Amino acid sequence: MKIKLVYPGWPKLKNQPEFNLPPHGPVVFAAAVSDDIEISFCDENVEQLDFDEDADLIAISVMLTCQMPRAWEIADKYRARGKKVIFGGIATMLHAQETTMHADSVFIGEAE
């Protein structure tokens, strides 16, 4: 089995200095997964998401509310391709009801 962890990009403000906010949740989740499961990870703030990469399960982690529209867009694209999508993260908890329309499962609290 292969799980693709996705950390969605967020819109940058005009004149905003460039900075990276490394996501903690997906890293902890990956560390808790059994060794017989293959994991790949994409932070859209650093690299472009490859929708053609093979994966059995897509796990989207969302920390900021401003990431939610992009996270839902990503989920909808994967689900249109027949992929199962799960969500977790702080912003997911804040927008759980809306997120259920874009996910097969939504984690409230710690997923790992």
Q: How far do the termini sit from each other?
A: 17 Å
Q: Sketch the topology as an H/E string, one letter per element.
A: EHEEHEHHE
Secondary structure category? alpha/beta
Assembly state: single chain
Number of helices: 4
**CATH architectural group:** 3-Layer(aba) Sandwich
- Based on DSSP secondary structure assignment, what is the total number of beta strands? 5
Shape: globular
CATH topology: Rossmann fold
Summarize the biggest pleated sheet: 5 strands, parallel
Average per-residue pLDDT, rounded, comes to 92
Whole-number radius of gyration? 13 Å
Q: Portion of residues in helices? A: 25-40%
Q: Order of strands across the biggest sheet? A: 2-1-3-4-5
Q: How much β-strand is present in the residues?
A: 15-25%
Please summarize what this structure is.
The chain is built from four helices and five strands; from the N terminus they run βαββαβααβ. It is of the alpha/beta class and 112 residues long.
Characteristics:
single chain; 112 residues; alpha/beta; Rossmann fold; five-stranded parallel sheet; 5 strands; globular
If you had to describe this structure to a student in words, what would you say it looks like?
The chain is an alpha/beta fold. It has a single domain (2-106), classed as Rossmann fold (3-Layer(aba) Sandwich). It has helices at residues 25-32, 68-80, 90-94, 96-99, and strands spanning 2-7, 38-43, 57-61, 84-88, 105-106. The protein has a 5-stranded parallel β-sheet with strand order 2-1-3-4-5, sandwiched between helices. Helix 1 links the parallel strand 1 (2-7) and strand 2. 30% of the residues are buried. The mean pLDDT is 92.
